[in-house]
Design goal:
The structure holds two protein chains of two kinds.
Chain A (H helix, E strand, L loop, with lengths): L6 E3 L6 E3 L2 E7 H13 L5 H23 L5 H14 L3 E8 L2 E9 H10 L8 H14 L7 E7 L8 E7 L1
Antiparallel strand pairs in A: 1-2, 2-3, 4-5, 5-7, 6-7
Helix pairs in contact in A: 1-2, 1-4, 2-3, 2-5, 3-5
Chain B lengths: L4 H9 L11 E3 L2 E7 H14 L5 H24 L2 H6 L8 H14 L3 E9 L3 E9 L12 H15 L10 E7 L8 E7 L1
Antiparallel strand pairs in B: 1-2, 3-4, 4-6, 5-6
Helix pairs in contact in B: 1-5, 2-3, 3-6, 5-6
The chains are: A alpha+beta, B alpha+beta.
Chain lengths: ~170, ~190
Amino acid sequence: MPLRLDFTLDPETYRHYLNGHLVVMHSHHYLALITRLVEDLKDMGGPEILRDVVEETMRAVFDDYIQKNSLSSAQDKCNVGREYYSVFGLGKMIVTGDENGGEVRLLRSHLDEGWLKKWGSNAVPVNHFTCGFVAAMFGAAFNKPVKTYKVTEVASIAAGSTESKFVVKTS
Amino acid sequence: MTVMRDTVVKSLAKITVQGDENGLIPEYEVLVNLLPVSLLNTFAERIMAAAPPDKKAQVEEGLVRAAYECGYHTGCGIITSEIFNDVVMPMVTEGEKDILRGAYAAFTAWGWAKSGIVQLKEGERMVIRAFDYYEADGGGEGLRGYTLRGLSQAFFDLAYADPYPDGMDTHVCHQTKGIEAGDPYGEFIVVRK
């Protein structure tokens, strides 16, 4: 079932909304630099902060859509996250798995391709953003609390792989 | 004729973006993303709260830097884009000054900040006032208009520093007032470094 997209504009403030959620545009420079910032702040848990914030805020977006559209099957609910990922311009993903976990492959990735454009290949995976996004997607699909799923990036376009791969396990 | 702000805002505000068949948004010579403001504001709040006192300046600088480089590179793409050329450039009669006016109309139209130039000494100093900007909604302490600081610095560099891409880091932007701090508007001042 394709994601229903309702773009609206507040004529007074010019704020933009997608399906009722305030959204704003940035570029790969922004997300790459936010990622580098959290990498530089590893000693204070920077990557975990980014993952947690993405999981919590995206989960609210997915749950809201699922509720408003009365979706019931795990597949339909998971598809909400997968399609939002592409609508947001974050890339193209293939998702497999069940409530015990699974795997997500990125065929295209805004963050990874942006990182490569900006700095070239990195020694290790850096897509903390998508780890949080995938955790939110699985949580919403199987109606589990936030932080149920631990997501690990095991292959990375930014680190030279042709596709990125994320392993999802219950934590 | 100089840039007619309302006309530009209304024209640019109609534009919506979403991912193509690859889930990407290639526009303005960059890859664009569209993200919930709740995510951006919560991240800024949490990362600033987590930083010990001796690292808060580094984290703040990192948030501004992300917006600055985004603004500098994307800004160049915007002011050379077909839409800017169609909507803004026909009204440009005062060179860089009008291009900056067009840029702040774009900031308003695209939901970054309902903002405009209130003082401009070309190449030296610019004062911006913003009456609505998404970072004012976020939690935290102190002035938190990191994005508008970075974007203002970027566009002043694009207008008055060496031509792209050699003009980076020529100017700096300080925030002096903020809705998030109880002021009626955000105020941002760009000066030479």
